[in-house]
């Protein structure tokens, strides 16, 4: 090959290399973002192993974004009501002592507002009837409920996508400024999963940092003992009649049970069939989610319809003859004893309530990580 041909060939390959490099230079690099893992409250051995979604790991950025959304009334149709309006931190994330929550139109809902701490241990659905299978799917329901925020998800997404602040925050948390329903749910899910209550006197006693009073210790025994029907007890005033049978439905350190159960409540508001009304299974009629007893002192009124104002009323309900005609007994394990009227003396009732008050976590009410970020 002569020198001229070699030079032409060399120029040809150099040109190919130049344009190849040029194409690489002109390629748009993929957007990358970095998040910081969120450090959960250390619950050590006080609570069971956590259940966190693999596809929505908690990050500082995601939790902060969810916190903003939780407290922002932008989610409601008239921008007057937020999630926190019915889940107030000072009331252990319940609704200010209201029996039924009130929406933006001034209309009452049909059920009592449930507390939203320790949500990562809920594996059986959300709401009193379990209509939301996972936590992020809970988010759109109150937004679109005409008795609550009375908005559409479409309108919420328009508002969020028109907000430079939220586009920036979603980009930090999820690496995109395109806000959709899935990311909205994931953000709020992260914040709610971060709310852990494990600072009650009960927890301090378990750690050896505090001790129960004699009354509280007696109440714990009553809570964890089998009920003894009055008909089977020769002398109802003897100390052997301790059992309150509470632990069957509210046992363990979470003080809750995964099942939806019927507890013999007579009809009150309408004819709310609970779980059965949602899934259409008559065996689940009048069965409701078994809530945690943690922070019970702060979450009155009680039951799905808020019919009881005090813990004493709740205890008395479970000690009174119950109407099991609306319950499928195979799906109501507590009814076998409670329907026969269980006896506790006045002193034992007071002891049981005293123990329940040891489940109150005052630190939850002021923890800045869960407070309104706009104040």
Overview of the molecule:
This protein starts with a helix and ends in an 18-residue tail after the last helix. The chain has two domains: 60-197, Cytochrome Bc1 Complex, Chain D, domain 2 (Orthogonal Bundle); 201-359, Orthogonal Bundle (Cytochrome Bc1 Complex, Chain D, domain 2), CATH 1.10.760. The protein has a two-stranded antiparallel sheet with strand order 1-2. The chain has helices spanning 3-26, 60-71, 83-86, 135-138, 140-144, 153-161, 164-174, 181-193, 201-206, 214-223, 247-250, 275-279, 311-319, 335-338, 346-357, and strands at 260-261, 288-289. The chain has 15 helices and two strands. The model is unreliable at 6-30 (pLDDT under 50). Helix content is 35%, strand content 1%. The radius of gyration is 28 Å and the shape is globular. With 375 residues, it is an all-alpha fold.
């Amino acid at each position: 090959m002569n020198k001229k041909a070699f030079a032409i060939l060399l120029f040809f390959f150099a040109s190919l290399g130049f344009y190849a490099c040029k194409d690489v230079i002109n390629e748009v690099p993929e957007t990358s973002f970095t998040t910081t893992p969120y450090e959960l409250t250390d619950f050590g051995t006080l609570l069971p192993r956590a259940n966190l979604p693999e596809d929505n790991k908690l990050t500082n950025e995601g939790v902060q974004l969810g916190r903003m959304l939780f407290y922002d009334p932008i989610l409601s149709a008239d921008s007057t009501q937020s999630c926190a309006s019915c889940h107030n931190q000072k009331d252990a994330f319940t609704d200010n002592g209201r029996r039924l929550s009130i929406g933006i139109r001034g209309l009452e809902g049909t059920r009592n507002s449930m507390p939203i701490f320790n949500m990562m241990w809920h594996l059986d659905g959300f709401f009193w009837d379990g209509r939301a299978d996972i936590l992020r799917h809970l988010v759109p329901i109150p937004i679109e409920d005409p008795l609550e925020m009375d908005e559409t998800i479409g309108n919420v997404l328009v508002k969020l996508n028109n907000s430079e602040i939220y586009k920036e925050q979603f980009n930090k948390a999820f690496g995109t400024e395109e806000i959709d329903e899935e990311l909205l749910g994931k953000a709020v899910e992260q914040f709610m999963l971060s709310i852990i209550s494990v600072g009650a006197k009960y927890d301090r006693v378990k750690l050896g940092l505090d001790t129960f009073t004699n009354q509280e210790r007696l109440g714990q025994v009553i809570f964890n003992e089998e009920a003894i029907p009055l008909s089977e007890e020769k002398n109802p005033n003897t100390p052997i009649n301790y059992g309150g049978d509470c632990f069957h439905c509210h046992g363990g350190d979470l003080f809750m049970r995964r099942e939806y159960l019927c507890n013999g409540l007579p009809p009150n508001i309408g004819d709310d069939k609970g779980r059965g009304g949602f899934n259409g299974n008559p065996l689940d009629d009048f069965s409701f989610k078994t809530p945690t007893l943690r922070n019970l002192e702060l979450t009155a009124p009680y039951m799905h319809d808020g019919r009881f104002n005090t813990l004493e009323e709740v205890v008395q309900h479970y000690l009174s003859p119950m109407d099991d005609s609306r319950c499928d007994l195979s799906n109501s394990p507590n009814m076998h004893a409670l329907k026969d009227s269980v006896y506790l003396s006045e002193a034992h009732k007071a002891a049981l309530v005293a123990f329940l008050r040891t489940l109150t976590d005052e630190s939850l009410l002021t923890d800045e990580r869960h407070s309104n970020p706009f104040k």
